[in-house]
Amino acid sequence: MTERHLTRDEAWALLESRGALLRGHFQYASGRHGELYIEKFRILQWPDVTEPLCRQIAERFRGLPTVVAGPTTGGVILAYETARQLGLRAIIAERKDDHGEEREFRRGFELGPGDRALVVDDVLTTGGSIREVLKAVTARGAEVAGVGVLVDRTGGTVDFGVPFFACLDVPAASWEASACPLCRDGVPLVVT
Predict the structure, then answer these.
(1) Could you tell me which residue ranges the Phosphoribosyltransferase domain spans (predicted)?
(2) What order of strands is seen across the sheet that includes strand 190-191?
(3) Is 137 annotated as a binding residue?
(4) At residue 58, does pLDDT exceed 80?
């Protein structure tokens, strides 16, 4: 990879060539259903793909954050690589309990007033994980410098109230389970 940014077509081709774009009938972590699934770990297993995508996020926010934060699990790799490129440290927000919707910084990660956190994540579908990390950041008295993701599936409809950047915009329809046309048509469901 060169030091230039990937074009949208190049990023899309990388996702396809590495088997990260799956088609079928999927139930996402949000509970919604859709016909396109982006398997983030088929991206994150390849440093030659992850590095240039994180570089794009890092360049967009250079000079703004003092720390990079991500949610477990995909955000661990992204926070690390983005922080590496910015010369900053990376911290991880973990779930408070197995079934909760709250995250916290544990394992001695320090964050507080004076810190400006760049929150990174892999695939944005509803924004739930990112909102949980944003809440954990502000609960420690830190500011949010922005949000960066590899893939935005929302078509730009989610607003976090801070600067936002997505390496790739892949708008894809999704439905509540009760309104899913794939369920109605009897297409087998894969729970992700």
Answers:
(1) 53-158
(2) 174-175, 33-38, 21-27, 190-191
(3) no
(4) yes
pTM here? Answer: 0.88
Query: Is 159 assigned to a binding site?
Result: no
Q: Which two tokens stand for residue 105?
A: 């910084």
Write out pLDDT tens, residues 160-190: 999 999 998 887 888 999 999 999 999 999 9
Mean pLDDT of 64-84: 95
Distance, in Å, from the CA atom of 153 to the CA atom of 172, rounded to the nearest integer, reads 6
Strand locations in the chain (E) = 21-27, 33-38, 67-71, 89-95, 103-105, 116-124, 143-152, 164-169, 174-175, 190-191
Cα separation, 120 vs 58, whole angstroms? 10
Average the pLDDT over 47-55 and give the result: 91
Q: Residue 162 annotated as binding?
A: no
pLDDT at 77 over 90: yes
- Where do the domains of the chain lie, and which CATH numbers do they carry? 8-191 (3.40.50.2020)
Question: How many contiguous H segments (helices) and E segments (strands) does the chain have?
Answer: 6, 10
Please tell me whether 48 is known to bind a ligand.
no
